[in-house]
C-alpha cells in the first residue's frame, strides 16, 4: 500500500475515533488512543479539525457545539461542577446572560489556569461540593451541573457576590417553570448552612 493510502487510512481511522468521542477531543486523549501526533496535526492543517480551546479540538464536519463554553470547561477541568449563575442559565431560571462560566471546585483544591472561556472559580466545602450534582450530555460530552434546587441554595450562600435580585428572580422563575420541591431545597439549604436565611423566602413562595 502506498504511503498516501496509508496516510489517508490513518486519518480516516482517527476521524472515526473522534466521531465516536462526540466529535470533540483533547489532544492528550487522542494521543493516548494511539492517534499519531503527525496524523492529528495533518487533520488540523487540512481543516478537518479546528481548535476550540488550548488542547481541545472538534471535527469541522460535525454540527457546531451548542454550548462550547460548558463543553470546554468539562474537558479541561473534569473535576469541576457548573454552578451559580451559569447553572441558573443552564436550567433556564434566570434572565442573566453570564459572561463567564461559574464553576465549583473543592475548597482544598487549587484553581487551574484556563485561557478560554473566561471562568470564575468558587470554592465549596466537601459536603456542599458533592451534593446535588447532575450529569448532562452536551454534544456527546458529559458535563456536571448542580441541580436547580442545589443551585438555589448555592445562590443564597453566595448572595452577596451575585446579588440578591438575581437570587430572588431565580426563585420566582423556578416556582413558575418547575415543580416546586420545598423539601429538596431545604435539604441543600442545610448543607450550605443557609436554611434559616432561605426559609422565609421559601414560605413566601408557597
Automatic annotation (TrEMBL):
Note one Pfam family from the annotation: AbiEi_4
Q: Which residues form the AbiEi antitoxin N-terminal domain?
A: 13-60
> Per its UniProt record, what InterPro entries does this chain match?
AbiEi_N
* Identification of the protein by name: Transcriptional regulator
> Which source organism does the UniProt entry give?
Desulfobotulus mexicanus
